[in-house]
Write a sequence for this structure.
């Protein structure tokens, strides 16, 4: 009998198997650390110390996690509609333009809480606009969304470098970046949250966009599981043919799903641009769009799972920095290695352990 | 005559910049024609560049470097195959994973082994593929028109360059004139039919991804020990994705692949050349325009405005026998 048709209880499917995938990814990463001649256990304890050892560490962990929640949600919304959006990186980049333009226009006149909603809309609109063309090409002309979104990542990078070097740059300055936003264009830090737990935030840029990210996660949950649109998206994701027989308009759902995905990716820019550096810089996204793929896979495309997975990756990023500081032999790029392994085992090899799990489970049930 | 000299210099850098694209796009051709999408071309190229540079440095032999580059790339192909053929995982995700893993591990290991911030040490001339001066190149250099073309463009390339241009007709021959090629193309269109004929779909696809691995190995080796004299971190710099774009642009056919790669290489060479120069009537063209052009062209093609690019039918779909 084929093992693929056996249904496993939810805690195995959504808990044990992802955990197992994660453990294998970490074991191999530990092997790499050992290969370099450092102790994997020492590296692990540094990782945890760096991410949780101080208020500042926790602040950085949550700051990274904020970006990853947005991009993870972006990837997940598209996946629910059966679309693999590799373009979150580019959409976030263009989203940064949207929120920077809002901040530059309003920061002289109004306080941050007036700027913020407009910036959320600006970032979301710009991100969505960048996702619209690949979505349209997929829906109407049948071009593969994976290829077009990859192309659009590179077009976005070229466009943004051009804008920052030639248009938005402060005259007389060398660095390709906009002017620093005034207080009206900055998102305040969440120092009081840390004070509540009796520690200090320090220099960490943990800011209000974390709350926006949590709201966005709740919104995605409602959308996907509690609305008609979400149902239509999921139907399309499971079977486009069944969806079309059921009268669900393919082109419209594809475009709406991608617009939402792009908007969520775009909103990620709020965190680094308005929450941390208070200006638009080159390459501020820093791969967060791609991390979103890993986060979404790890979180099984569920908002709650995505929040946990985003915090896990926040730990990796902050703890990884700490490791590279304490163990100069291990560079920051170790994060990319772990990330690659997580994507490989949680995503591409997700079924590897399933047959064994099914066998063990069935034996267990019989006994 | 000055214009002609510019022409020759742009042409020769076009060729230099196209070679890794040609190898990589041909690699993608084998894989995708067999129904396995390969986003991991970038990672395989980067990984083999690193392996080639390390081994060439340690052994002092360029050929040993090439062997290591190819071996590394084939190993990564087998991982991709294991995930997407044996385990029927998502091919795109597997490719993305390989790209991440390699982008990290090359720097981590490079720093740990050589301590130069992810670089490998500078290679000695004998550990590299040196330019080959074709017979008579110096003798006819002075001949107008033909001389500079022969001496500056056709002669003076390294052996991998000539191999790249040989790989194009060879790939065409393998795909269209051998039994293996016929079956490979069939498995990308209708794996069920191939299976019914009693041929193993999995083994055929494994061979296809191995072909891709070998070709990507050449591309990476070219980057680190033929074009440059060391591995530099992230030296593939998106070439794998450009190759992917070229593959789409060429509609998954070998000879157009070569022309698409030459076109994209030319745009790259032109953007280097045009930096800080102005074009009559238009003024200075930003470098970013040239950089974005291959991607824009590919999207325009995909939108169906210049012909239609139809990918292999079974591409991206794992084969399930029971269906």
């Amino acid at each position: 009998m084929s093992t693929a048709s056996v249904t496993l209880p939810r805690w195995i499917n959504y808990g044990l198997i992802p955990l197992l995938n994660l453990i294998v990814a970490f074991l191999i990463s530990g092997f790499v650390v050992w290969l370099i001649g450092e102790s994997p256990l020492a590296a692990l304890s540094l990782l945890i110390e760096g991410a949780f050892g101080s208020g500042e560490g926790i602040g950085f962990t949550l700051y990274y996690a904020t970006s990853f929640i947005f991009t993870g949600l972006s990837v997940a919304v598209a996946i629910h509609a059966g679309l693999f959006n590799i373009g979150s990186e580019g959409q976030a980049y263009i989203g940064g333009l949207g929120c920077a333009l809002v901040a530059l226009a309003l920061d002289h006149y109004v306080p941050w809480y007036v700027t913020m909603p407009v910036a959320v809309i600006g970032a979301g609109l710009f991100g969505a606009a960048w996702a619209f063309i690949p979505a349209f090409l997929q829906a109407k002309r049948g071009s593969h969304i994976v290829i077009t979104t990859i192309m659009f990542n590179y077009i976005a990078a070229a466009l943004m470098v051009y804008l920052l070097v030639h248009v938005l740059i402060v005259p007389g300055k060398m660095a390709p970046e906009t002017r620093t936003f005034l207080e009206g264009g900055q998102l305040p830090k969440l120092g009081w949250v840390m004070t509540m737990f009796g520690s200090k935030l320090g220099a960490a840029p943990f800011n209000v966009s974390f709350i926006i990210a949590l709201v966005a996660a709740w919104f995605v949950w409602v959308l996907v599981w509690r609305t008609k649109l979400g149902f239509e998206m999921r139907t399309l994701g499971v079977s486009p043919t069944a969806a079309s027989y059921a009268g669900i308009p393919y082109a419209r759902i594809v475009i709406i799903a991608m617009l939402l995905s792009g908007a969520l990716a775009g909103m990620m820019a709020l965190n680094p641009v308005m929450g941390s550096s208070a200006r638009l810089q080159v390459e501020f996204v820093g791969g967060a769009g791609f991390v979103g793929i890993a986060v979404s896979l790890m979180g099984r495309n569920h908002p709650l799972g995505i929040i946990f997975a985003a915090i896990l990756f926040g730990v990796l990023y902050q703890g990884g920095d700490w490791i590279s500081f304490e163990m100069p032999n291990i560079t920051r790029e170790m994060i990319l290695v772990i990330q690659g392994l997580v994507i490989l085992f949680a995503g591409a090899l997700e079924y590897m352990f399933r047959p064994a799990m099914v066998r063990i489970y069935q034996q267990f049930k019989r006994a | 005559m000055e214009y002609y000299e510019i022409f020759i210099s742009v042409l020769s850098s076009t060729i230099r910049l196209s070679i890794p694209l040609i190898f990589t796009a041909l690699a993608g051709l084998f894989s995708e024609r067999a129904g396995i999408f390969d986003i991991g071309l970038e990672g395989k190229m980067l990984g083999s560049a690193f392996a080639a540079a390390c081994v060439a440095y340690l052994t002092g032999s360029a050929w040993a470097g090439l062997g290591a580059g190819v071996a590394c790339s084939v190993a990564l192909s087998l991982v991709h195959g294991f995930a997407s053929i044996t385990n029927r995982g998502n091919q795109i995700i597997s490719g993305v994973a390989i790209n991440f893993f390699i982008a990290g591990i090359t720097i981590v290991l490079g720093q740990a082994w050589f301590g130069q911030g992810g670089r490998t040490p500078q290679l000695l001339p004998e550990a590299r593929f040196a330019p080959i001066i074709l017979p008579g190149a110096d003798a006819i250099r002075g001949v107008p028109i033909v001389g500079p073309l022969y001496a500056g463009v056709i002669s003076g390339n390294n052996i991998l360059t000539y191999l790249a241009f040989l790989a194009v007709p060879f790939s065409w021959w393998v795909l269209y004139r051998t039994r293996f090629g016929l079956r490979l193309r069939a498995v990308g269109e209708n794996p069920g039919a191939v299976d019914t004929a009693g041929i193993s779909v999995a083994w055929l696809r494994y061979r296809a991804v191995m072909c891709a691995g070998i070709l990507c190995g050449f591309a990476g080796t070219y980057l680190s020990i033929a074009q440059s004299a060391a591995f530099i971190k992230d030296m593939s710099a998106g070439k794998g994705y450009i190759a992917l774009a070229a593959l789409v642009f060429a509609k998954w056919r070998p000879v157009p692949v070569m022309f698409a790669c030459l076109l994209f290489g030319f745009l790259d060479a032109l953007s280097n050349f045009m930096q800080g120069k102005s074009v009559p009537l238009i003024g200075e063209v930003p470098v970013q325009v040239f950089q974005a052009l291959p991607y824009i062209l590919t999207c325009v093609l995909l939108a169906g405005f210049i012909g239609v690019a139809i990918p292999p039918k079974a591409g991206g779909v794992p084969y399930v026998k029971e269906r």
About this structure: The mean pLDDT of chain B is 89. Chain B touches chain A through 50 residues (CB under 8 Å). Strands of chain B lie at 278-279, 283-284. Chain B has twelve helices and two strands.
